[in-house]
Specification:
Elements lengths: L24 E4 L9 H9 L5 E6 L2 E5 L3 E4 L8 E7 L10 H7 L5 E3 L9 H9 L3 E4 L6 H14 L6 E5 L5 H13 L4 E5 L6 H8 L2 E3 L5 E3 L2 E6 L2 H7 L5 H9 L5 H6 L8 E5 L4 E2 L5 H19 L6 E5 L5 H10 L4 E3 L13 H9 L5 E5 L9 E5 L5 H14 L8 H12 L3 H15 L1 H9 L1 H22 L15 H9 L12 H22 L21
Parallel strand pairs: 6-7, 6-16, 7-8, 8-9, 9-12, 12-13, 13-15, 15-16
Antiparallel strand pairs: 1-4, 1-5, 2-3, 2-5, 10-11, 14-18, 17-18
Helix pairs in contact: 3-4, 5-6, 6-8, 11-19, 13-17, 15-16, 15-17, 16-17
């Protein structure tokens, strides 16, 4: 077998075995407009809304917009062979148009909610004013905080687009239920459901209370649900109608009408399922390349079973931090993409300057798993930044103590002293006093359980540290920098590598709309190169990277 020779099209003639001119057509026009050098080609490819002819000019590949296409039999002396065509691919065209239609957004994209208002009002409003959707990070926020966010966002974006997060709270179901009731009262059009293991009463209440029948006899869904999932068994629940027991209970308690109960049989619990791969916060650390095809197959099976009027869309999250990742997700079949970790490094995020600086220095390996605050007793973990903070090992130590001992009094005195000095920086009793005040307002049932069970009392005190550590990170609490809990996936390091040497390397230059536009513009640019490759046309290697050179805006 003959060895394959490396071809650089700027200097060598393209191999005729792979580059076959179109037999029936030729291009005719001003040859001065043909881009044949790498810099010229890049400029042409970046005009993503213009189609390009790929032609053969003096044994070199050239790109050109415009001109005239004539029959190959034409006797025009200036006609040149056509090798292919690179279509126009506007960034708005990427992904499923049904997603854009449903949520009235310009892109098949939304910025995912990061709890504790990290996905802040400013972030949601900035995106919304650009015609892009963001989900407010309501997880961990009390009703008054959520209500204030609703008022501000609805005033700024009366017609959207925006979404609010509804976080599953197995240890505090009342908090989840109050949030859902608030969303119903305030007519929130879209909820992003996160960390669910099963369909809950609160989620079903939100979903079903927004159903109505149009005059044409069609089901209208006014309360849209985007479910974040990473497991097939959980996805199946969102791809199914609401459970009968929850429907019956909602009906009996007057939360929904008889018509809504009947309509619930014909729609799934979610309009979209966001497949969450290796991400910041709650994650199973699974690979997106395997998850997306598996979930699409499951979706198709469930659609065949239930025959819904509107097919549930499957989106991609976790690792979405570069144009290559965006393009890869769409190539895998994702209807839309969702960003997370990279957003909290933006100026609009509800994080402190210290935290944003740490995130901007992160590399791929600078993450670790640590016990979560909301599901501490269940042993559920979240992915966090380990660079510049000791939260991960300290939180893991607390879970080790919780797993080994049934009460604080059983913990050896030397260990208790160490925990109070190095982690809590307060006594156990002092923290318990504050915990009582906190849960008296938030969920008194937690205190009833703790008074009867010293193991649960220890869990609540440990959760005090886990809960405040993320708040310290957001507010920039002085003296607690080593305890900051910063939710972060490896995609943060990948993003930092991509923008190194550009204006986006500096945290102060990072703005959520600008970054989103670069991700989509870059994905469209790279998809044009891929379109050429599918025709056997390989452009110079130094065109294969998209770099953010200047801020973009809409």
């Amino acid at each position: 077998m003959m060895p394959v020779r490396s071809i650089t099209y700027e200097t060598d003639a393209p191999p005729s075995s792979t580059l076959r001119p179109w037999s029936a057509l030729k291009w005719c026009g001003n040859i001065q407009t043909i881009a044949s050098e790498a810099a010229q080609m890049r400029a042409s490819l970046l005009q993503i809304d213009q189609p390009l002819w790929v032609i053969l000019l003096e044994e070199k590949i050239g790109l050109v917009h415009g001109g005239e296409v004539v029959p190959a039999s034409s006797m025009q002396s200036e006609s040149l062979p056509i090798l292919g065509i690179i279509p126009a691919i506007p960034w708005e065209s990427l992904g499923d148009p049904a997603f854009r239609h449903t949520y009235h957004t310009r892109a098949s994209f939304y910025a995912g909610a990061m709890a504790g208002a990290i996905a802040s009002e400013d972030l949601v409003i900035s995106l919304g004013k650009a015609g892009l959707m963001g989900s407010f990070g309501a997880g961990g926020c009390g009703p008054s905080r959520i209500e204030a966010a609703i008022a501000r966002i609805q005033e700024a974006l009366p017609n959207g687009p925006y979404a609010f997060n509804l976080l599953n709270s197995p240890n505090e179901p009342r908090l989840e239920q109050r949030a859902a009731e608030l969303y119903v009262q305030k007519n929130i059009p879209v909820v992003e459901a996160s960390a669910y293991l099963d369909i809950t009463y609160a989620l079903a209440h939100y979903r079903l209370s927004g159903l109505e029948l149009t005059s044409e006899g069609k089901i209208q869904i006014n309360h849209h649900v985007i479910a974040k999932i990473s497991r097939k068994e959980v996805a199946s629940r969102f791809l199914s109608p609401a459970p009968d027991d929850l429907v019956n209970r909602l009906l009996e308690e007057g939360k929904i009408t008889h018509q809504q109960a009947e309509l619930s049989r014909y729609i799934p619990m979610a309009d979209d399922i966001t497949v969450e791969a290796d991400s910041g916060g709650h994650t199973d650390n699974r690979p997106l390349v395997g998850l997306i095809p598996a979930m699409i197959t499951l979706r198709d099976q469930m659609q065949s079973r239930f025959a819904y009027p509107q097919v549930v869309r499957v989106g991609a999250a976790g690792g979405i931090s570069t144009p290559q990742a965006v393009l890869a997700a769409f190539t895998l079949g994702a209807a839309y993409v969702t960003t997370g970790s990279i957003n909290q490094a933006c100026a609009e995020a509800g994080t402190s300057e210290h935290t944003r600086n740490l995130l901007a220095q992160a590399e791929m390996a600078d993450v670790a798993m640590a016990p979560s605050a909301d599901m501490f007793e269940m042993g559920v973990k979240v992915q966090v930044l380990k660079r510049g903070t000791m939260f991960a090992p300290r939180a893991s130590k607390l879970y080790e103590i919780y797993s080994r001992y049934n009460a604080w009094d059983e913990v050896p005195q030397t260990e208790r002293d160490r925990l109070e000095k190095t982690i809590f920086k307060r006594t156990f009793d002092e923290i318990w006093s504050d915990t009582v005040k906190f849960f008296t307002e938030r969920d008194p049932t937690q205190l009833v359980r703790a008074e009867k069970d010293p193991h649960q009392k220890m869990a609540l005190v440990f959760r005090w540290y886990l809960g405040l550590s993320s708040r310290w990170s957001n507010t920039g609490e002085k003296g607690r920098e080593m305890d900051y809990q910063i939710w972060c996936g490896p995609s943060m390091g990948v993003f930092n590598e991509w923008v190194r040497g550009t204006y986006l390397e500096q945290p102060s230059n990072r703005h959520v709309v600008d970054i989103t536009l670069h991700l989509f513009t870059g994905a469209a640019y790279l998809s044009r190169l891929q379109a050429a490759r599918l025709q056997g046309i390989y452009l110079p290697d130094n065109l294969n990277r998209y770099s953010p050179e200047r801020p973009l805006s809409i």
